[in-house]
């Protein structure tokens, strides 16, 4: 029996690497990079390379579980679906539609979110539907929306090779996006200048021509200072900028206060370095900007995006090959989910619940009364957890994500989830931190066990097809959603027999929109490289870059220059909590390790959590390399091993985020326990990145710390 | 770029600058939002509300800013937007932005604006002007609160007043005292029901006209005193209705701010009358006691004298029998005897005066008694003394029968007629009229405290000179006489008459003036007495012998009459006022006969009662009394063996006969 090879797309990050998947006797046996794919050209990262192991991992859910007398026991699908549908209906009847909520992962297929959106916003009548992209790219989306008038990432990966300057801020691409980073590194070797802005001296900073090691959370001040300097130094063709961007006059006035000395004082960067950065930008012909959670995990996330885009707009680094903002999402289908309206303020097809015209369009399309769709945004995920605490939210349905480990302020989140009258969790593994709290666990299918589309960060729509059967009685997420919707009485609204039918319906809603995919069909995508949207008709080759005509979807057709003020983070240091904790990820793990933690090779690379401390701070605290210490914030305490790292700024420490308790005995290693759930006003994205902590040596050898120590040793 | 185009651009730039300056200078918040609530323009004044700059707000969602406030202003904005879609504009919409429970209030004017946006798509923008009215609102709110409290108080007070007014009106309406209010110009302001009932409609009338039919203020008007602040208390007898009022006049604050006068009038007519009655009763009582005392004394004296006189009257007779006809002693002894007889008469009168002496009660015809006297030798003798006097009688009483003591009545007649003749005297012509009549005396009309009812009146009237008022009140006292002692009377004549009437439960009245004197003797009568009298022969036949009779009737008066009749006939009588009580009574106490009313309410009727009683005492004798002899119940009851029937109303004879007949069965 020979291996059958099929084209697919990587289910991990949002780069969207083309993969070839080898199936033998109905089993997924091998994964390799697709050589022809323009994104990765046959390259794969360690996560993708280890995908086959996920299919052989333990703990796979084979049938639904229902909690009876405190214990989750296997039940038949009929019973589980009936239970979920009846309790949803009951709670909606008793407490109204806003008492229920849905929260899914950004790795869910677009088709799945289309169904869930229709069920929640169209049938039930609540906007409480959220996606983990809220934790990832919500601020990028809001940044694009405010600057450009639409959540439309304008650039593509091909710009990497055309740029002569990379401005990389808050993004340790070497770890987070290794395949793309390889392309950047190659370009840098060929002369492209690199500016890295990061409080840590990261692997990415290692390739930089200039590393601005700024104080955490001060990006708005840095960007404004850079803009100030660019204007002052004459790098801005003001006449020209005025044609494609509005607000230059106000911006210039606004930027007056962001002088070099002021910017230097706030960011902690030397004036010469900032000036040097400004001149590098000013002199660059094609600047490509990259940013990531260093920006987005912040209460000023949207303003960081806006102020970064200001620089691109001022220096004419927009809408040309090799120039502009290149936003790369953290999960495979984050952009697809944004466009299908997976967030509480959105409607399918880049529409907004707040827009009456757009509500009407969707209502007409779904053949429901327009009043069914509520005019105000629903709850963001943090607000949903708050709602569970307040008793306003009584039922929550979670798919493909793990909020009990992934949300900040974990104890608060757990407490909220425990208050739910009904917690339904749909996943492929059990236990996860969230399935352990569930009343019902629904056994879903994973990548290659189901069919649907991903949209990558360069707007490339890719078909990922079912290549193997889900194990046991596990069902595809579409099937489960349809079953529950029908059991709730929405039979006519959910007539779909296949994912393709769903896609054909949904794509009609993209007509005339920037995400227009009416030229796309499963047939056109099958075993081929995906198409970049918009792709309005069958002959359309797809669109590499947006806004090449300099017309933006804002009322005056121009992009907006926005004078955003710098504000301090929600949490600042004080004598009790004198350090800033930054969090990040490891190359070998993904999010809360639901998949990667079950792959032996990946797990062994970095089995436990550590805390990176500047040697100077460690000295002051008399802490030694590898010493187990307590890291304490206003919300909780975790244990971690000391790692002395002079790449840190003094006063800041770093931990990785992945280590929840589902795959280990110890409770207190998850960095999110420490984080605040303060959110950005506009994007509702939590400020994971900035947490005030103190560190302490483990005093008495408690049983708990002994256990943890034992694990490390 | 052509020169003309450049000029256009310059003009445009200037215009834009002008507008920008205007926006910046505006104290009101100016906000332009896209219809999806994205902020397109926000001026500094608006941004200051959110502690940020226009750059911070631009291109963000207004919801992001509003949702930071309490009380869901996002929904308010949606409502405002809906209003704009419906009406195009909306003004003075109140917006509340509350943070940490501190509210800021805005008055928002908003209208829609069509933008020609990206790719010629039309988009709706909303221009809103936000005026901070927190200070005004707080002031207004304080005012409003004050107003609400005030209004509440006014409402409460109004309600109180309304209640008070209603109570007061009710009080004025329901009270029996009169009440009116008048101003200084005598204009009536208010007259309550009690007065209006007596004096009629009062509106727009002067008080003197209203109360006195007068054209000018009364001479006794108390205005001067009352309007100088005094309260005046006096009594007034209205000639209009004969009522006497006790009046309190007091000044009061009038509705027009001037001083008015409130008068409270209490009708004290009855009180005065009863006071006067009490007074006269007291006088009479004193008189009666005096008379009684004298009677007791006289009685005692008379008894002793009677014993003494027995010798004085008796022995001369014996002595005279033994004395020869020519004896010189005969004349003095005869004198002793005559004096003794005279003394005996006096004593006899004295004995009459003694209370309780009138013991014999017989039914007599007064007309007959009077005629007998007028034809008696005694009266002939009197007539012969007074040839100048015409003695007439007018015996008009159709029912002249009374229970009385004929001896005493005779004495009264003698005394009164003699007195009348003597009053006229022998020198002048005159008339003495003796008359009888029946009269019903109404309790309200008589001033002499007589019980209401039928009376037989015997009147003796003379045409003499009359009795002076000073003497009138003493004439019934013993030994009070103007006459020369020994000449005609004993000085006890009128006392005897007074006492006689007292013993007959009657009354003696006297009226006198210069045209003569009139004595009236009131005898109370009962119709049945006639029956007894007329059938006097049969009374014995009807009389009972102490047989026990139970009277059953639901009407108390019927019971009382029947009881008196049967008791008079010599029966032992018990009464009950319902069938049920009768059955109960019979159960414990057997009787010889039941007199049973047929119709009784409520409860069981005569027939049912009799049926019940027969169960207890078969053969119980009974007389059925009913107004309807033909009724089925009566017939049925009689068939039960009831024995007797008497039709109501019945006389004593009829009842007696029925009872006697039933008992004999």
Tag the structure with descriptive keywords.
heterodimer; A: 713 residues; alpha/beta; seven-stranded mixed sheet; six-stranded mixed β-barrel; 25 helices; 28 strands; B: 665 residues; alpha+beta; five-stranded antiparallel sheet; 23 helices; 22 strands; 47% helix
Can you describe this structure?
The complex is a heterodimer of chains A (713) and B (665). By secondary structure, chain A is α/β, with parallel strands linked by helices. In chain A, the strands form 7 sheets. In chain A, strands 5-4-18-17-16-6-7 form a 7-stranded mixed beta sheet, sandwiched between helices. A 6-stranded mixed barrel of chain A has the order 23-27-24-26-25-28. A 5-stranded parallel beta sheet of chain A has the order 10-9-8-12-13. In chain A, a hairpin with an 8-residue loop joins strand 1 (4-9) and strand 2. In chain A, helix 3 (77-95) crosses helix 20, helix 4 packs across helix 21 (499-508) and helix 8 packs antiparallel against helix 11 (260-267). Chain A is globular and about 70 Å long. Chain B has 665 residues and is an alpha+beta fold. Mean pLDDT of chain B is 80; it is low at 484-488 and 529-537. In chain B, a hairpin with a 4-residue loop joins strand 1 and strand 2 (39-42). In chain B, the strands form 5 sheets. A 5-stranded antiparallel beta sheet of chain B has the order 2-1-5-4-3. Chain B has a 5-stranded antiparallel beta sheet with strand order 7-6-10-9-8. The chains are: A alpha/beta (713), B alpha+beta (665). The interface between A and B is medium-sized, with 36 and 32 residues.
């Amino acid at each position: 029996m020979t291996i059958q090879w099929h084209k697919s797309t990587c289910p991990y990050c949002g780069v969207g690497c083309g993969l070839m998947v080898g199936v033998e006797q109905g089993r997924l046996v091998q994964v390799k990079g697709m050589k022809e794919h323009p994104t990765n050209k046959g390259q794969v990262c360690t996560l993708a390379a280890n995908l086959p192991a996920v299919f052989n991992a333990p703990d796979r859910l084979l049938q639904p579980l229902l909690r009876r007398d405190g214990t989750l026991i296997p039940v038949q699908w009929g019973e589980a679906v009936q239970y979920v549908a009846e309790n949803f209906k009951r709670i909606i009847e008793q407490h109204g539609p806003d008492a229920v909520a849905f929260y899914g992962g950004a790795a869910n297929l677009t088709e799945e979110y289309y169904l869930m959106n229709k069920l929640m916003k169209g049938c039930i009548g609540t906007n409480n539907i959220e996606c983990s992209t809220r934790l990832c790219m919500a601020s990028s989306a809001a940044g694009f929306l405010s600057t450009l008038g639409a959540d439309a990432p304008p650039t593509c990966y091909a710009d990497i090779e055309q740029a002569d300057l990379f401005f990389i801020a808050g993004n340790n691409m070497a770890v987070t996006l290794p395949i793309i980073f390889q392309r950047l590194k190659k370009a840098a070797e060929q002369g492209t200048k690199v500016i890295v802005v990061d409080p840590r001296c990261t692997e990415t900073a290692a390739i930089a021509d200039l590393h601005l090691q700024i104080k955490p959370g001060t990006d708005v001040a840095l960007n404004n200072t850079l803009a100030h300097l660019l204007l002052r130094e004459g790098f801005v063709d003001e006449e020209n900028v005025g044609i494609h961007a509005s607000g230059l006059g106000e911006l210039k006035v606004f930027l007056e206060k962001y002088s070099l000395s002021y910017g230097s004082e706030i960011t902690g960067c030397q004036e010469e370095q900032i000036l040097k950065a400004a001149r590098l930008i000013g002199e660059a012909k094609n600047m490509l900007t990259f940013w990531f959670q260093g920006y987005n995990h912040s209460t000023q996330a949207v303003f960081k995006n806006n102020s970064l885009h200001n620089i691109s707009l001022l220096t004419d680094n927009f809408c040309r090959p090799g120039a502009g903002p290149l936003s790369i999402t953290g999960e495979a289908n984050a952009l697809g989910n944004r466009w299908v309206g997976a967030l509480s303020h959105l409607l399918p097809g880049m529409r907004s619940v707040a827009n009456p015209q757009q509500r009407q369009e969707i209502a007409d399309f779904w053949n429901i009364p327009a009043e069914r769709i509520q005019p105000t945004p629903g709850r963001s995920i943090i607000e949903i957890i708050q709602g569970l605490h307040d008793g306003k939210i009584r039922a929550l349905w979670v798919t493909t994500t793990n909020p009990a480990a992934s949300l900040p302020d974990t104890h608060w989140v757990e407490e909220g989830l425990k208050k739910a009258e009904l917690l339904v969790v749909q996943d492929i593994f059990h236990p996860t931190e969230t399935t352990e709290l569930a009343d019902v666990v629904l056994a879903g299918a994973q990548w290659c066990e189901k069919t649907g589309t991903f949209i990558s960060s360069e707007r490339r729509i890719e078909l990922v097809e079912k290549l193997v059967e889900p194990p046991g009685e596990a069902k595809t997420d579409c099937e489960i959603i349809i079953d529950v919707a029908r059991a709730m009485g929405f039979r006519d609204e959910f007539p779909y027999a296949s994912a393709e039918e769903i896609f054909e319906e949904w794509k009609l809603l993209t007509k005339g929109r920037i995400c227009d995919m009416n030229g796309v069909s499963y047939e056109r995508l099958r075993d081929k490289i995906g198409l970049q949207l918009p792709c309005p008709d069958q002959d359309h080759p797809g669109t590499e870059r947006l806004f090449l005509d300099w017309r933006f979807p804002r009322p005056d057709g121009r992009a907006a220059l926005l004078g955003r003020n710098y504000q301090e983070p929600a949490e600042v240091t004080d004598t009790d909590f004198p350090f800033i904790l930054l969090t990040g990820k490891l190359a070998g793990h993904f999010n809360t390790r639901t998949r990667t933690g079950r792959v032996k090779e990946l797990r062994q690379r970095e089995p436990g959590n550590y805390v990176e401390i500047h040697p100077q701070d460690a000295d002051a605290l008399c802490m030694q390399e590898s010493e187990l210490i307590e890291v304490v914030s206003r919300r909780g305490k975790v244990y971690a091993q000391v790692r002395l790292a002079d790449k840190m700024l003094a006063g800041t420490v770093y931990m990785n985020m992945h280590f929840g308790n589902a795959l280990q005995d110890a409770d207190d290693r998850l960095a999110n326990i420490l984080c605040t759930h303060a959110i950005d006003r506009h994007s509702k994205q939590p400020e994971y990145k900035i947490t005030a902590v103190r560190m302490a040596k483990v005093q008495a050898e408690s049983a708990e710390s002994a256990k943890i120590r034992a694990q490390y040793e | 770029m052509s020169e003309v185009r450049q000029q256009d651009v310059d003009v445009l730039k200037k215009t834009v600058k002008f507008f920008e300056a205007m926006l910046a200078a505006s104290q009101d918040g100016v906000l332009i939002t896209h219809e999806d609530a994205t902020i397109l323009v926000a001026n500094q004044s608006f941004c200051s509300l959110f502690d940020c700059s226009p750059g911070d707000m631009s291109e963000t969602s207004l919801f992001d800013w509003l949702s930071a406030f309490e009380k869901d202003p996002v929904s308010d904005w949606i409502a405002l937007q809906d209003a704009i879609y419906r009406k195009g504009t909306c003004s003075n919409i109140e917006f509340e932005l509350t943070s940490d429970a501190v509210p800021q209030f805005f008055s928002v004017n908003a209208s829609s604006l069509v933008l020609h946006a990206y790719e010629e798509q039309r988009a709706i923008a909303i221009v809103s002007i936000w005026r901070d009215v927190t200070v005004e609102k707080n002031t207004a709110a304080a005012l409003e609160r004050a107003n609400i409290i005030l209004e509440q108080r006014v409402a409460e007070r109004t309600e109180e007043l309304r209640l008070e007014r209603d109570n007061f009106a009710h009080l004025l309406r329901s009270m029996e005292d009169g009440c009116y209010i008048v101003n200084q110009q005598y204009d009536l302001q208010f007259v309550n029901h009690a007065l209006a009932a007596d004096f009629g409609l009062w509106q727009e009338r002067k008080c003197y006209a209203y109360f006195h039919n007068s054209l000018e203020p009364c001479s006794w008007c108390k205005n001067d005193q009352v309007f100088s602040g005094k309260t005046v208390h006096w009594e007034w007898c209205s000639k209009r209705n004969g009522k006497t009022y006790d009046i309190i006049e007091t000044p009061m604050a009038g509705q027009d701010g001037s001083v008015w006068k409130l008068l409270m009038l209490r009708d004290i007519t009855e009180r005065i009358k009863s006071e006067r009655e009490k007074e006269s009763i007291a006088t009479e009582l004193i008189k009666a006691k005096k008379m009684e005392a004298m009677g007791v004394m006289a009685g005692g004296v008379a008894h002793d004298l009677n014993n003494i006189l027995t010798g004085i009257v008796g022995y001369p007779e014996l002595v005279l029998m033994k004395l020869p006809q020519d004896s010189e002693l005969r004349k003095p002894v005869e004198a002793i005897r005559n004096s003794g007889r005279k003394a005996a008469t006096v004593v006899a009168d004295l004995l009459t005066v003694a209370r309780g002496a009138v013991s014999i009660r017989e039914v007599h015809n007064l007309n007959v008694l009077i005629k007998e006297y007028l034809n008696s030798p005694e009266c002939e003798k009197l007539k012969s003394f007074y040839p100048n006097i015409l003695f007439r009688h007018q015996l008009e009483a159709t029912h002249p029968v009374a229970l009385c003591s004929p001896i005493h009545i005779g004495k009264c007649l003698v005394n009164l007629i003699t007195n009348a003749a003597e009053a006229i005297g022998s020198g002048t012509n005159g008339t003495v009229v003796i008359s009888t009549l029946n009269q019903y005396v109404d309790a309200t009309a008589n001033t002499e405290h007589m019980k209401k009812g039928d009376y037989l009146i015997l009147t003796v009237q003379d045409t003499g000179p009359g009795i002076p008022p000073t003497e009138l009140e003493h004439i019934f006292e013993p030994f009070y006489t103007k006459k020369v002692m020994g000449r005609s009377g004993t000085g006890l004549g009128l006392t005897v008459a007074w006492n006689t009437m007292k013993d007959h439960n009657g009354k003696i009245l006297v009226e006198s003036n210069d045209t003569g004197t009139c004595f009236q003797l009131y005898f109370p009568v009962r119709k049945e007495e006639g029956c007894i009298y007329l059938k006097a022969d049969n009374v014995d036949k009807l009389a009972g012998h102490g047989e026990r009779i139970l009277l059953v009737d639901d009407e108390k008066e019927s019971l009382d009459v029947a009881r008196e009749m049967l008791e008079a006939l010599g029966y032992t009588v018990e009464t009950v006022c319902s069938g049920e009580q009768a059955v109960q009574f019979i159960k414990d106490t057997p009787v010889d006969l039941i007199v049973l009313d047929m119709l009784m309410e409520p409860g069981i009727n005569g027939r049912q009662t009799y049926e019940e009683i027969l169960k207890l005492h078969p053969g119980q004798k009974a007389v059925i009394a009913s107004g309807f002899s033909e009724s089925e119940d009566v017939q049925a009851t009689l068939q039960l063996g009831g024995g007797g029937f008497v039709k109501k109303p019945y006389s004593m004879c009829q009842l007696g006969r029925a009872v006697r007949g039933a008992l004999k069965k």
